[in-house]
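Transcriptional regulator, MarR family
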Amino acid sequence: MNHYSPESFSLTQSVGFSITKARNVLATEMDAALKELDVSSQQMGILLSMRRGVATTPFELSKLLGIDTGLMTRMLDKLETRGLLERSRSIEDRRVVNLKLTKEGEAVAARLPEIAPVVLNRRLRKFTKAEFEELRRLLNKFLAD
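Tokens:
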């Protein structure tokens, strides 16, 4: 089913526009809340994914977070420079780079679950539980191939 046509399409009324705007608003608010830790909302995704063992290589992180490999490399460079993570070559396959949080990276990552829910709950404060669940369901449906 087509929901748009050339005649009916309006940029500011499109789903893509609303999703992008919502993402930007949320990223701005999250970045402000994370300022004290000196990490961005995108870096938060990397640190939490690594802490939970969901991803341990740049490729896995890129795929999981939907970030292109060039940007991922630059973000990992910044986190490594800050002393939050370390890179090492895989012994089994030298082409693979493994990532590991440092003690400081672990400490920063441990604080993130205290901060992120506050930002998210503030943005979702007008949603009922049913609306929140429906929003998650619809976003997951939108993202499914």
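The mean pLDDT is 95.
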